[in-house]
Amino acid sequence: MRRALLALVLTTSACSSAVSGTAQPLTGNLAVVNAPGTAAALAAVKTAAEAVFSYDSANPAAFDQAVAANVTGTAKAQLTALFEQVRKSAQPVRLTTTVARAAALELTGGKVRELAVLSQVNGTSKGLATAAFTALEEGGHWRLSDIAVNPAQPSPAPHPDDGSLPGLRDSALAGARTVAGALFTTDSGDPDGSYTRAEAAAAEPLLSDYRAKKATYVEAIRKSGTKVALGPNPMAAVVTLTGGGATVLFTTILQVTAATGPTTSKPFTAEFDVVREGASWKATAVRPVTAA
Question: Counting beta carbons within 10 angstroms of the beta carbon of residue 22, is it exposed (0 to 12), middle (13 to 18) or buried (19 or more)?
Fold first, then answer.
């Protein structure tokens, strides 16, 4: 039951730019661009998510109160479906959830979309779930309005890569998705080609690590007997953006095809550090997100 449980549940400040001596408000997607507003929205969603993804079977009324206070719209039905088996469990449940990592996909007015990694504990069992949340600000309080576990959603329309902060953010995100494709798309029938693509997407210090372990990587790909591809609509959100570098939270459903034909889906979430080299982005570090 514990394994099934963990698998199942797995106000913005002004931001302006100087134009002809006059402060003009920025519009569009302000995720990361409006740093204080992004931080405030993420903190509010963290509080809401931790409240409604935690459950104590000895006090189910507390869960209902948390949902009433922190959820609106379609998210109410989504939570009901997610917790249906949990609430029917004959075994005691004391699920505690914390938001381990989060990054904003979009911030527009009183609406935020974000990626979040939920760390969950139920007794001695631990697990992770990756979710995409949409939240709305209503009367100074943020409420979850949409919840997708192991999400695969289209990316927001990118800002042109014009040297602006929004352009840099979206260029880093596109670069991170390209890097992920190079690093995690492998073919046991072409292990050398798989390694070459990964090496080309790496910068120091990751590049030296790849080169030092090339033989090990190539042999592991060969022995896997599989083809691995990114699933549709891999999702990425910037955690931090500094100069020509960024840390990106990335999630996808890897499609793993065995030599005998069957394809299985494997949720995968990682943090990338990426740096801009000319017109392209390369990874300097990759940290898969796993349960402690």
Answer: exposed
Q: What confidence tens digit (pLDDT) does each residue in 239-250 have?
A: 999 888 999 999
Cβ neighbourhood burial of 114 (10 Å; 0-12, 13-18, 19+): buried
Residue 161: phi, psi to the nearest 5?
-80, 75
Q: What pTM does this model have?
A: 0.89
Strand blocks (E) in the chain: 16-19, 22-25, 55-56, 94-108, 111-122, 125-138, 141-149, 186-187, 226-229, 235-242, 245-258, 263-277, 280-288
pLDDT tens-digit series, residues 36-53: 999 999 999 999 999 999
The more confident residue out of 82 and 26 is 82
CATH class of the domain whose range is 2-14+26-149: alpha beta
Q: Are 87 and 60 in contact (CB under 8 A)?
A: yes
Pick the CATH number of 165-288 from 3.10.450.540, 3.10.20.30, 1.25.40.20, 3.20.20.70: 3.10.450.540
pLDDT in the model for residue 9: 45
* C-alpha to C-alpha distances, 157 to 29, 106, 131, 174, nearest whole angstrom: 9, 10, 20, 11
The reported pLDDT for the residue numbered 27 is: 73
- How far separated are the first and last CA of the chain, in Å rounded? 20
Structure confidence at residue 290 (pLDDT): 84
The domain segmentation of the chain, as residue ranges, is 2-14+26-149, 165-288
